[in-house]
Amino acid sequence: MPHVPTRVRKLGTSERSTLRIALIGQSAFGKSVLEALVENGEDEIVGVFAPPIKDGQSSDPISNAADELGIPLFEFPKLRDKEAVDQFKSLDPELCVMAFVTDIVPMAMINFPSLGTIQYHPSLLPLHRGPSSINWPIINGETETGLTIFWPDQGLDTGPILMQKRVEIAPEATLGSIYFNKLFPLGVQAMVESVDLVRVGNAPVIAQDESKATYESWCKANDVVIDWSAGVDTVFNMIRGADPQPAANTTHNGISLSVYDATRSSYGAAGHVAGAVVEVGIDRIIVASSDGSIAIGRVKAAGGKKIGAAEWAELVDLKVGDIFGG
Q1: Digit-coded pLDDT (tens) for 15-44
Q2: Under CATH, what is the fold of the domain 6-212?
């Protein structure tokens, strides 16, 4: 990224030793950010805004954590409703922290805290703006990704950058391993570090380079239908970039089959039609592409559970020469 002027978010005339923080978040990541900020012990969490309980489901992990910690919890169906905005403002937060938010947060909330709002995004903005920003770099075969803590504005992931951390995408890495082993723990750490920078008045405000911006929408099952005639790199990257969600998929005898735990195989493609089963092993099945083959460790047939590929192969009497995706 070319040099752009860096501004710093200042505290104003009076030094603050403790911030009043409102946290908007959900799921395990939001819970971990909440717990880390509490453990940091520097600030007061004046309220947590979490998704409401859905019918037949348990409460969100961040809601449970807020209850256990004795922090006021608010569960509005839509944050942009006037009742939610009024409740947020009544807490008089100095900083808002957004940790994994899928609802639309209105600018009336984002702009209200005196020190602004910071948000976590799992990519190196301005690259991979959008909701599936971990999937696409892997599917594209990129070797690096990262996370950004930024100051949200009216655009989608377009606000100025506060902090970034880079991570390698190893050749065998999956969506799951990149997120849970790298972007999740680093993201929690970066959130705490960013709040510390805001508190001492030294938080960067760096404009994103719009000339390098990219955007991708949700990575859905129909985006990751395997074309076995594509090269082995393309097939392998698609499978690992969608593992575990939304799961790359093919068909067998007309039934959709999601595939997981893929590795490159030493089997060549010579003499095999793309999509052909070239081996049914004791713990995997191997399928040919146009220029190589892929070993698959687990599968999930439509309406079924995720099981070992060899177990599934026995259930359906899979044989060498059977064709996937036909």
Answers
A1: 568 999 999 999 999 999 999 999 999 999
A2: Rossmann fold (3.40.50)
